[in-house]
Design the sequence.
DNA sequence: ACCTGAACACCGTTCAAGT
DNA sequence: ACCTGAACACCGTTCAAGT
């Protein structure tokens, strides 16, 4: 995790990881099967940082919101996670939080197909959002953002709306995320039992 | 694209690509700056397959739905795209469709911050959904899905809700996606001018 | 039970040299 | 303007051998 946080996913190498641990790279293969296993472990560790709301049997919407916000915060705290989200999330930490999400929705009266749609909708939204923000917000991408900005302005004839109201320009990621989550939850209300 | 479609992102190599084109790998660097450029070009090409709705000035919701569905279909047609979505999408095809999305929302009366939130919300949702589905649905992941299924059943004490109603089990991806999109659009109605 | 070194089969990319 | 070959600095992973 330290290596990933400091240098990003590209620079995580079995050799570099081993060096940081004071061994040879081949030693790692006694403890781990492949590099993918290392990435799966690191990714699941992120979700361990997400606090599971202590539900007082109260508002399901409040509980779900807290979980999803924590989920997002954890992903953004470790931006390298964005490039790894395209793999099955099956670690104990992910599953525990996924269980909470499903249980909360069930308790709120959701039944299939709305149960599945709500759970997936929330997960997909938070993953997509974290992916998008991590892509554009992070350090080395500062220049990419500026270049994108300039590119839109330069071709404002082709992309008038994007150049004018376009994203990336004065985007407040937090309120954008919150509003989108509100839409989703408002829309789900209809499906609530 | 042919190479990616047939063998996936992992197996796209400058050497293998060159072989397919009947040249040496180093020749490619005359036409392209880095491998990342190749991936960016391939990814943008996907979006070129998405038809931009011919808006008759009618229902914005209908137009947006058509675009997002096309977006999703294109991504799922090329599942290797899932692992590449964590990079800036700035090709002409993406931008043209993004411009349409924003313009449609503006015409519908959306203003900031709702305009940005709606556009991002829709994009993030479709990207997250395609990522999730491609992760679980695809060929070689058949066994991963079965293993995940078995794992949940085996630990049904820890994950009772997931084991019972859990995803991956009898999930109809299309209706799950459609329902989630409905929630989002319903929720956005409030923000409409 | 755990660690090591040598080795294999690859990578992306550069660069001088060719036509 | 475009292509080639040799070369550099890496990769993930295996496996016999050590302690």
Sequence:
């Amino acid at each position: 995790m330290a290596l990933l946080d400091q240098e990003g996913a590209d620079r995580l190498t079995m050799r570099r990881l081993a060096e940081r641990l004071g061994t040879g790279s081949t030693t790692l293969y006694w403890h781990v099967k492949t590099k993918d296993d290392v990435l799966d472990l690191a990714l699941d560790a992120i979700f361990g940082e997400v606090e599971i709301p202590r539900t007082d049997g109260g508002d399901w919407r409040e509980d779900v919101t807290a979980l999803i916000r924590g989920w997002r915060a954890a992903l953004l705290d470790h931006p390298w996670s964005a490039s790894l989200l395209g793999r099955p999330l099956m670690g104990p930490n992910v599953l525990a939080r996924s269980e909470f999400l499903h249980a909360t929705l069930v308790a709120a009266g959701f039944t299939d197909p709305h149960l599945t749609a709500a759970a997936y909708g929330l997960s997909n939204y938070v993953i997509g959002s974290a992916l998008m923000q991590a892509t554009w917000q992070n350090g080395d991408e500062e220049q990419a953002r500026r270049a994108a900005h300039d590119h839109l302005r330069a071709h404002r004839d082709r992309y008038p709306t994007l150049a004018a109201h376009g994203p990336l320009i004065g985007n407040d990621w937090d309120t954008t995320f919150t509003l989108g989550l509100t839409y989703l939850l408002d829309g789900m209300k209809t499906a609530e039992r």
User: Anything to note?
Assistant: Chain B touches chain A through 65 residues (CB under 8 Å). Residues 23-24, 26-27, 30-31 of chain B lie near DNA strand D (CB under 10 Å from a C1'). Residues 114-137 of chain B form the longest helix (24 residues).
